[in-house]
Design brief:
about 150 residues, Ribose 5-phosphate Isomerase B, Chain: A, 5-stranded parallel beta sheet
Length: about 150
């Protein structure tokens, strides 16, 4: 089955994971590299049990902020830690997905610029599906959603 992904041409997708998300991140990265223009992995090059999720999340969040057309994907065991860490960076709207519908809502309603995934709770195919629908979903730009995002600033 061929997947399609929605990202503007020459857009970068930054990806990162701590030790708990490393193996799933590697599988997801390989799948994404088949379909996207540019995937940049900001994780350690090898799995390291001493990797700390706040450092990886900060790297991805700061890269996304430097390149406003980019997006980010973060993985840790639950998705919670990387989401908390990424959202500490002003201008980041990181969201956890637990199914395709929640992934869509985070883009459509909240214009999330980072998707956080729990590597311990999903298969590689489920993670790819949530990532695919997240990347395909544009921000709705409805006035109420714009207003709410502005209130976050």
């Amino acid at each position: 089955m061929k997947h399609t992904f929605f990202m503007e041409k020459n857009t970068t997708l930054y990806i990162g994971a701590d030790h708990a998300g490393f193996t799933q991140k590697e599988k997801l990265k390989i799948a994404l590299e088949k379909y996207l223009h540019r995937v940049v992995d900001l994780s350690a090059p090898i799995k390291n049990d001493s990797d700390d999720y706040p450092i990886i999340a900060s790297k991805v969040a700061r890269a996304v902020l430097k390149n406003p057309k980019s997006k980010g994907i973060l993985l840790c065991g639950s998705g919670q830690g990387v989401c908390i860490a990424a959202n500490r960076i002003k201008g980041i709207r990181a969201a956890i997905a637990w199914n395709p519908q929640s992934a869509v809502a985070s883009r459509n309603d909240d214009d999330a610029n980072i998707l956080c995934l729990g590597a311990r709770f999903f298969t590689s195919q489920q993670l790819l599906t949530m990532t695919r629908v997240w990347l395909q979903t544009p921000f709705s730009k409805l006035a109420r959603h714009k207003r709410r995002i502005k209130l976050l600033k």
